[in-house]
Structure to design on (221 residues):
């Protein structure tokens, strides 16, 4: 009984300490704002405007390269050309008879509109025999991620997505973000598995070991 009361008291003290630290941080920020004059605030506004303008220009640049859309490319030459023009690419290798490939299509359609920083495309593996053999793509669907024309990661099937057809888009987003080809504001060390029924099936895969694809990672046509 006494031990339980002592433990509760310790928890209360820890919570109180955390609240005090948060309040002190807020007070410090408010004090900093109080000391700012009109020139300081104007400088902040101008800096923010420039950041927004730069972001908009970058988004337009990406849009001109085809970012923001989920395009079907028809041959290997297009794949190489896109990989050279866009520094970050997410490509689904699919076949028409695979139902799971259609599931990935649904999620990729949403992600391409959210992540302009990467180019999202799909390529029929049967129409790209040289590329699929060179990159050792044997399971459909396979999602390939490239940075600066180099393969940096891949997602094979649904094993890393809960091994379920009903995984949420947020889980695929998190998994793609592991390869650093898209921006991610969440916690990369913890998958968003709240909506996944079998959470134990979700694997956390760190950066792909380069030696696994050392012979075929360079995408030179």
């Amino acid at each position: 009984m006494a031990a339980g009361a002592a433990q509760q008291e310790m928890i209360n003290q820890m919570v109180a300490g955390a609240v005090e630290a948060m309040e002190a941080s807020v007070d410090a920020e408010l004090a900093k704002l109080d000391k700012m004059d009109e020139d300081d605030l104007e400088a902040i506004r101008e800096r923010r405007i420039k950041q927004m303008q730069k972001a908009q220009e970058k988004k337009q640049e990406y849009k001109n390269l085809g970012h923001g859309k989920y395009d079907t490319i028809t041959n290997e030459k297009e794949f190489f050309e896109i990989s050279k023009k866009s520094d970050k690419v997410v490509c689904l290798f699919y076949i028409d008879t695979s139902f799971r490939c259609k599931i990935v299509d649904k999620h990729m359609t949403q992600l391409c509109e959210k992540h302009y920083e990467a180019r999202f495309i799909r390529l029929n593996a049967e129409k790209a025999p040289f590329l699929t053999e060179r990159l050792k793509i044997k399971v459909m669907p396979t999602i390939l991620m490239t940075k600066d024309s180099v393969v940096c990661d891949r997602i094979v099937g649904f094993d890393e997505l809960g091994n379920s057809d009903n995984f949420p888009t947020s889980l695929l987003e998190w998994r793609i973000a592991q390869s650093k080809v898209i921006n991610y504001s969440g916690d990369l060390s913890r998958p968003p598995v709240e909506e996944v029924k079998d959470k134990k099936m979700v694997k956390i895969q760190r950066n792909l070991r380069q030696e696994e694809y050392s012979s075929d990672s360079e995408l030179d046509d």
Notes: The chain has a mean pLDDT of 83. The two ends are 73 Å apart (CA to CA). Residues 101 and 141 are 5 Å apart (CA to CA). The chain has six helices and five strands.
